Each structure stands twice: as structure tokens, then as C-alpha cells.
Amino acid sequence: SHHLSVQVLGRSLMAGLLRSSIGALNTSSRVQLDTSNVACLPQPRRLRLQEYADSCLPLLLLMLLCLAQVYAYRLRRAIAAFYFPKREKRRVLYLYNKLLRQRQSFVQRQRKLVAQRARQHPGLGPSVLEWCCQRWPRLHRWLRRSCTVCGTPRTPQDRVCPTASCGALYCRPCW
Fold this sequence. Notes:
This is DCST1 ligase. By secondary structure, the protein is mostly helical. The chain contains four helices and two strands; from the N terminus they run βαβααα.
């Protein structure tokens, strides 16, 4: 809202002249201006089922392709095995022997670890050994304290069992 008012006091000729010329400037105006960007904004609405399908279908397709990739790699190996059977046989034997070596080295490593822990302190031997056998149950078969044939205590693995009739049976390791 704007309001301009000029008052000229006096009775002289100059005062009258000013009143007549400046009186036209006495104005009152009111301006109301509202600005909004509502017309520019998108109007929200619910999505239709087709729009949901259009947005979710690519995601579903990507997930299925990720799962299918595994089978595609298997198929690639099977096709190569069909055309190159000798190479496939060498590959399978290599992987099988590698797996056997890993298993054997793991068992040997665990046997050495258990023996080392048992020898650390004389008073802690059996309790550490029992703890290791509880933690790794497969170690029980490697940690027998006597021969499986005759029952001789603490028989080394490399020695022939003394009570075996043929002398060919070896005692199981004690540790």
C-alpha cells in the first residue's frame, strides 16, 4: 500500500501555484501481488499398475540374469569339456589332487598344533589336548593314545605292532 500526500500551507500566490501543481501528486494506491510456483510443480498422483510393472521389470530381469550367469559358466565349462576331453580330465585330476593335498596338510598342521600346545607346559598337556579335541572333533581319530589292534599305550606310528601275528599291521599314532 502506497500513500503520498503533500500539503502546502500559506495564502500567497506561490503557495496557491504549488498547491495546484503538486496537488495532482497526492495519490493513494494499493497493489496486491501474489506469486506462486504451484502451476509449475507436477501434480502428484497414484501410479497405475502398468507403471509399476515398467519400473520393476528391469530390476527383476537383472536379478534373473545374475542367477543365470552361474549356469552359463557351468555350461561353458561343459561345452569345453565336450570338445577337449583330455584337458578336462587333467583339470579334474588337478583339482582333485589339490583338494586332497589341502585336506592332508590341514590335518598334519592341526596334529602339529595340538602336539605343540600339549607340550608347552607339563601341567597343561591333557587339558589343552581335551580342549583341542572338543574344538576339532575330527582330531579324535588321530589322537588315539593306544594301538587299535593290541592296545599298547603310546605306540609310535612307524613301529610295527608287536602283537600282530603277521607283523604287517601298524599301530595308530598316539600323538
